[in-house]
Design brief:
The chain has strands at residues 2-6, 9-12, 17-24, 32-38, 45-50, 56-58, 66-71, 76-81, 90-97, 103-105, 109-114. It is mostly beta strands and 115 residues long. The strands form 2 sheets. Strands 2, 4, 5, 6, 9, 10 and 11 form a 7-stranded mixed beta sheet that branches. Strands 1-3-8-7 form a 4-stranded antiparallel beta sheet, with no helix packed on it.
Length: 115
């Protein structure tokens, strides 16, 4: 599967962004999808994940502020980010995992939150 992330940008603290990740090349509905992020000098971390069956998990940094969703008809997974903080500044990556645990990554989209 090929993944194309978009929607990043620069926003002030307290603002919102919606990231999108469009998938192609395979049956999107069969994949578990996730958003990860990596800030400079830090390890990549899970932001949110949604399984093919719709089960959702959030990383601690996202709980209460971010919402992950998927539209299988559009082959797209979304990350709605509200109440953004400067510490949310990172490159956000889309991830897809298939039924035999093969993982694919998108190219990343930069989110910059200023105080």
């Amino acid at each position: 599967v090929q993944l194309q992330a978009s929607g990043g940008g620069a926003v002030q603290a307290g603002g919102s962004l919606r990231l999108s990740c469009a998938a192609s090349g395979s049956i999107f509905s069969l994949y578990d999808m996730g958003w990860f992020r990596q800030a400079p000098g830090k390890q990549r971390e899970l932001v949110a994940g949604i399984t093919s069956g719709g089960r959702i998990k959030y990383g601690d940094s996202a709980k209460g502020r971010f919402t992950i969703s998927r539209d299988n008809a559009k082959n797209t997974v979304y990350l709605q980010m509200n109440s953004l903080k400067p510490e949310d500044t990172a490159v956000y990556y889309c991830n897809a995992v298939d039924a035999i645990n093969r993982s694919s990554w998108g190219q990343g989209t930069l989110v910059t939150v200023s105080s």
